[in-house]
Amino acid sequence: MGYFEFYKGPLEFNSTRCLELRQEILDVKVLSMVKQSELFDRWKRLQICNWAMDTSEANLFKSTLSKCCNAPGFLFTTQKNTPIETNLRYEVVSSGFFHINQEIFQMFPKVEFPFSHRSDKAASAGSAHRGDIFGGRGETSDEVCVGGGTGCDTVYVPLQEMPYYRSQFKKCAVVGNGGILKNSGCGKEINSADFVFRCNLPPISGEYATDVGEKTDVVTVNPSIIIDRFHKLEKWRRPFFRVLQMYKNASVLLPAFYTIRNTLVSFRVKYLLDDFGSPQQVYFFHPLYLLSVSRYWLNLGVRAKRISSGLILVTAALELCEEVHLFGFWAFPMNPSGFHIMHHYYDNVKPKPGFHAMPSEIFAFLHLHSRGILQVHTGTCNYG
């Protein structure tokens, strides 16, 4: 029996009792205010409440993200936000600048016709489908005719070159790699999301699928994985390609412009997929976006040498999705009931100390959950 089944209950998220329980979490302003066991107890008590999004709170939070970070415009480098001949500053300032020449510029995505809306007539004409709907709800747009002939319809084409736009997806799952996912049975619920983000090439097939699902739309790759496990792709190209094939047509997202060390190996991923004729897209985080996100969370109390890939994806998802659900995000050696768990759902390898501030990140997520901005799943799932 899952460790939360005793606590699952019918109370509405906005009931008097649940408002009190939500406030118990919010009253903990900093993680050091209470013992870990006390925080866990407060979190367990909150599980009797059926989470519901607080639309006004969520929209307010998303508006602050839009002003500070702007994922639809700057999540990764595009031909619009990073023109040819740009001297792009690395996220780590000491690495200096990277000059964008013609070859590198051609690696960046360029969306030709980013439809933001289409009528039923245009849809039935087959002139656009879900995979073609790119761009954003920009303030500036052109009009084009779709459908062909006299029956064509006018739609607005925003002048924005980003493959994802604001609130494009209804329900998103951001899947961390925490041991909290092991034996959760959350795979079906994760697979039911409209869009699924994953971090750092985690295993998802075979024995893991029941707990973590297999659907993947975006997966990040830390260049250190390529350097350490695949010898910088100087020889081990096909083994790396086989790993990427596990995620089918998922887009691959890399921090090419974090430091100089990351750049060439990130470019090699793009070259590799092109050479093997893969349909998978390769995108590079825009360093300005990463800096903005780091500053944003620093102001909210997350102090780390570098924020995690998971936090970056959660931040992006809050802008790109109407509703955000987190799975596998838990940075403590014990689950909320006090039982020891592995660090990852697939191994117990600990991270380098002092690099990330995972407990602070998870604490921030618990606050967002309590405010109705996103939902953190830390128990078993009973989907369907």
TrEMBL record:
What is the species listed in this Swiss-Prot or TrEMBL entry? Myodes glareolus
Q: What is its main location?
A: Golgi
UniProt xrefs under InterPro entries? Glyco_trans_29, Glycosyltr_29_Sialyltrsf, GT29-like_sf, Sialyl_trans
Membrane topology classification: Single-pass type II membrane protein
Superkingdom of source: Eukaryota
Keyword 4Fe-4S, does the record have it?
no
This protein is called Alpha-2,8-sialyltransferase 8E
Q: Is Secreted a UniProt keyword of this protein?
A: no
- In its UniProt record, which GO terms are filed under biological process? N-glycan processing; oligosaccharide metabolic process
The entry assigns this protein to a family as follows: Belongs to the glycosyltransferase 29 family.
